[in-house]
Amino acid sequence: MRGDDYVYRKLTYLVITPNSKLFSPTLTCKEDALDASEVDLLDQQALDLEFQICMVSISLCRFLTDHQKHMPLTVTSRLLNTHDVLMTLVPLLTKAPWVRKRRGEFEKFEKNEWKMIEEDDLCTLPKLNVQVWLAIFNLIMDGENRRRYDMTNIRKDNLLKLRRFLNEVIFDQIPPLTELLRTLEELSITNQLTQSITPAGGYGTGLNTMASSNVSSAFLVEVVAEIREALVKTYEGRWQEVADEQMAEIFVKETKEEMDRLKDMISIPRFDDEEDGLDETQRMAFNKNAQDLVQEVMESHKAQEQAKPEDESSVA
Prior knowledge:
This protein is mostly helical. The chain has helices at 3-16, 30-35, 38-66, 73-82, 86-95, 127-141, 143-148, 153-160, 168-173, 177-190, 226-235, 239-249, 256-266, 272-276, 280-315; strands at residues 99-102, 105-110, 113-116. A three-stranded antiparallel sheet has the order 1-2-3, with no helix packed on it. A hairpin with a 2-residue loop joins strand 1 and strand 2. The model is unreliable at 196-216 (pLDDT under 50).
């Protein structure tokens, strides 16, 4: 499985899912917690776990863009062209799933937990917000990316939406974004990303204009996640069928042969010297305890098997 593909799927999940459905709802009273079944609790835990994974994926996306010069060219090409991750990161800024309002108070998600935003910190950018800005900055301000990113009208309109977020409050916290605003202003005039000249220790100046559409893309050989793509293609639209088959054949109760093996495991063998130290009464008591334990396990298994048809008939 490719890391860039995985990150993109998580970012897409964040964008297309309403914020209220990204994490478990807040319980308003003790009765709600008591009425929740075990299945409901597991579903809530799975939902919260998925949300935490998505938040980590935002940081991973930023790290991928930080080190793109040290990674294979196919990683950047796949992010920019195959997935067009900029079309996902910009809406993610607007959606801001890392901030929520609960009981009249604003909260931000940091270090895998929700924390209340103090009044003095209302203008401070959440860390995940900064991660998204830096990922966008790394992708746009890199000269090689500019040459390879074909600027269509849809992509241009998407990037120009960033201008309304860029102000002095943002610049005070992330100074390099001033260069990003300058680049976006040039994009609105020239309808293309200019080739960036990055001096030592500085950022792109936006000079030496070159249309990205005039530069032909290189021939790239990339590693494809064949196993995952083959599984998705083979079982597309059949996932419920696969789950039902596994429930019927894999996740089943113990068979009689398995119960016999369990009986052999419970009957712990004793060494000769230990057996010699036991009289007949102790030996009979030990065997009776082992038999009672096995009988209890088998009766419990039998009761579960008898209850299973009743449950199925009640559902029908």
